[in-house]
């Protein structure tokens, strides 16, 4: 699918569409509809169970999305959270420099300064793709969205540019509340805001986005999680040193010089995508950033990339960032509080490992990767625990007894599972609607279900989405059937 196809599909099926659509929409802002909101929530819940709830000292917190200026000065965002902006002199179109140059097929390293952008533009004699005009001088553009607080609007604040800052701001209290144990994990699933110069590609570049991030605070000398959990794993990675795609075992990665705690989390993420979400192994890779492409505070920086056809290839859907002690040191200085930890005669600043995921990007990728169009039918082969609805209850015909039994069946399952009820249209059309949104099971109530003379009395048909196979199941066994089907094995 291309971007327009995917967006059309998302709108048609109740997944998502531009915010304020009835007024023509606004770039980089999207609303989730009745199906998409649940798909997003399912992804978040599985993420939370998998990455956070299985550890004794990892916790979910939440934070204000509106922050005062001070912490964002201390974190460096007020000064450095910039993109380079160029404008066409003639038609006045604004471009984000890296996006413009990549569209024009010219290489530019991440974090290039305005002067470097100007030099690249003049060296390649680049012109505005819209009108052929020449460009004005490139400028640094801060991507944070500032707001004025208070009755006289005198206090400057910002919408947070990443959820990570809320975790760092709450670290001090949580570390002390939680008896000063390391490693400590603080996770946030929440919104972040960026004044993107050119939002585009559906849910890829948004001005308001949802992140699922886990910040692990740890002691570099003692944090050595057990790699034997991942024996046999092979990780697709493009190391910065070789620039080539390689398939490496955890041990080989350690031999290459990546710390054990870093390799462990690569394996954890790899398992999440391949096993829990069911992504094909060739469609996942880690891309290491180095040199000028690496964020200045990161010691090791890898993008998690999925090969998403509608985005034209491998694109970033998350990241694994070893941030060292940059964040705690910055906020310790900014707030005049000591974050140093004393342990066994040592005094040290904890380090941070960040697991960061763009929820909207991952939702988009799920649709792209799991949409099937074959034999004249379209179905979304999501894992049952990711699918917006687990099952649909469908009365085969418009008959009072059948409808009544179908209603009872819906009530039996509703509240325990996400169940859709649909009685309108032909059964073929109703199956097709459920296939398109990825509902793994369609439960059909028919004449046999309500016929006490039939040997199929009190049973229903359960149709499986991908294979279209049908099982005849007792209504009293449905709960167990669905329970077994949606169980997740994380190991
Ligand atoms: Zn122009």
| Terminal Cα span | 33 Å
**Ligands, ions, cofactors:** zinc ion
Derived from helix and strand composition plus strand pairing, the structural class reads alpha+beta
- In terms of DSSP E residues, the strand content is 25-35%
Shape: globular
- Number of E strands: 26
How many domains? The number is 3
CATH architecture of the largest domain: 2-Layer Sandwich
- CATH domain fold name of the largest domain: BirA Bifunctional Protein, domain 2
CATH class value of the largest domain: Alpha Beta
> Which ranges are low-confidence, i.e. pLDDT below 50, for 5 or more consecutive residues?
none
| Biggest sheet overview | 9 strands, mixed
C-alpha Rg (nearest Å)? 26 Å
Query: In percent, how helical is the residue content?
Result: 25-40%
Structure, explained:
This protein is of the alpha+beta class. The protein has three domains: 3-78 and 145-370, BirA Bifunctional Protein, domain 2 (2-Layer Sandwich), CATH 3.30.930; 82-142, Herpes Virus-1, CATH 3.30.40.230; 377-486, Anticodon-binding domain (Rossmann fold, 3-Layer(aba) Sandwich). The chain has 15 helices and 26 strands. The strands form seven sheets. A nine-stranded mixed sheet has the order 3-10-11-19-16-15-14-12-13, sandwiched between helices. A hairpin with a 7-residue loop joins strand 12 and strand 13 (246-248). The structure holds zinc ion. Zinc ion binds at residues 88, 90-91, 93, 128, 130-131, 133.
